[in-house]
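Researcher: I'm comparing several assemblies side by side, and this is the next one on my list. It has 263 residues spread over two chains. Same procedure as the others: predict the full complex and return the structure.
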Amino acid sequence: MTGAEALARAVAAEQQVIYGYGVAGAHLTGPQLGAALAALDVHRIRRDTLMQLLSAAGGRAPVEAPAYALPFAVTTPSTARALCALLEDGCAGAAWDLTAATAAHSPTRSLAVTWLGDSAVRAAQWRGRGAALPALPGRP
Amino acid sequence: MGAGAGVFGSVGLVGCTSARSRTLPDPDEAVLTAARQRELALLSNYAITDPSYQVHLSHLHALGGRAPSPAPASGGTTSPREAAAALAASVPPLQVAAIAVVRGRNAALLASVAAAHAAAGRA
């Protein structure tokens, strides 16, 4: 996977995550809704940054779909939290690919490494204390 | 990912080997060795029955290391607080290493181990 391909995949992942957080947020309240909204802001900024990096690399951003298929029905706070964790897992996967596809010491590598950590932490928080965590977040 | 599977890599291996295969040295070996040592130090903080021990053992294996022998029977002498502090302290150097290594796969692996440590400490 080239750097531009990894960037395009990361943009696509962020587009899906932004949609997914919108769906999940409708079923969350209180601090969890606050956490979802904060995550939504983070992912919007990340998407925009990735699109700029992709454009600079000569790539074209994938077209954002009006809606995305969800892996399961989101109808309760519990399923909403599970979706949020899954969304962050997907981001960690895209960050793994981006980390692997970029050059040592490059700004994009640095961002990808940070994003991988952020997504893993957020996924763990959505899963809750005591839940089993992936041993190696993002690994294919 | 893909860093070692390029056309030149394949041609080079064919051209350089006659009767036996030869492995090119990993340019990131020193960094990986340091990461393995860090993982071994973290392992010593947990009993073998602790789920965290198995997680760090999987990290060690992924980094190309071997389990310590003999394995600790009843766990380390560090307190949970000290173990948590050691875990948190391991994240920045792993991330720095992930940014610095040459091979993309090594970078992703180190970043993922750092992410796992960060997630375990913040969940």
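Model: For your comparison table: The first helix of chain B runs from residue 7 to 16.
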